[in-house]
């Protein structure tokens, strides 16, 4: 069953989930490039002193290098999966759409757990609720993008499902 019939974002309205899935892939590529750039900036000694940053409590010369490379590798894979998503939509190949859906599910799970960690780990700072709520709003947008791509996946699935009718009584 298709979850969405149209896909919209705050800036772009798409009449169908196909063009919406292309926009989700473009959004993921752009976000990946921005996060890779920001992670490299922090790994080279840039500002990572804000409490709501994922690399907040890491040592610049120690654990930040390891986790920074993990983030960079993940975002490079997400960019590659976004390209595969575009190819999968154009070729109506569901298998090329699955890696993006899995990787975006991992991102949504990380966002949820990170915001919970912020709320429970730094509960004495009331100001941490604003970044946690903003992260949950952003997480809900990522869930919406995932639903858009999932709807396209189901449309392709229904197109490729053979219709077999038994003709005998």
TrEMBL record:
Source domain of life: Eukaryota
Record field: transmembrane: 24-46, 66-89, 96-117, 123-147
Gene Ontology biological process: establishment of glial blood-brain barrier; regulation of tube length, open tracheal system; septate junction assembly
Pfam family, one: DUF4728
UniProt keywords, alphabetically: Membrane, Transmembrane, Transmembrane helix
Statement: the UniProt record of this protein carries the keyword Transmembrane helix: yes
A cellular-component GO term for this protein: plasma membrane
Transmembrane helix keyword on record: yes
UniProt-recorded name of the protein: Uncharacterized protein
Species of provenance: Laodelphax striatellus (Small brown planthopper)
């Amino acid at each position: 069953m298709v979850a969405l019939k149209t896909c919209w974002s705050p800036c772009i309205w798409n009449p169908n989930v196909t063009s919406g899935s292309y926009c989700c892939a473009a959004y993921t590529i752009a976000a990946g490039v921005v996060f890779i750039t920001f992670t490299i900036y922090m790994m080279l000694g840039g500002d990572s002193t804000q409490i709501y940053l994922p690399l907040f409590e890491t040592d610049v010369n120690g654990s930040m290098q390891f986790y920074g490379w993990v983030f960079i590798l993940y975002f490079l894979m997400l960019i590659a999966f976004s390209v595969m998503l575009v190819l999968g939509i154009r070729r109506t190949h569901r298998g090329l759409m699955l890696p993006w859906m899995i990787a975006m599910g991992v991102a949504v799970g990380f966002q949820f757990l990170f915001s919970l960690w912020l709320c429970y780990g730094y509960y004495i700072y009331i100001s941490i609720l604003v970044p946690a709520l903003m992260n949950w709003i952003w997480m809900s947008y990522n869930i919406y993008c995932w639903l858009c791509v999932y709807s396209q996946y189901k449309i392709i699935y229904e197109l490729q499902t053979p219709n077999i009718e038994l003709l005998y009584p």
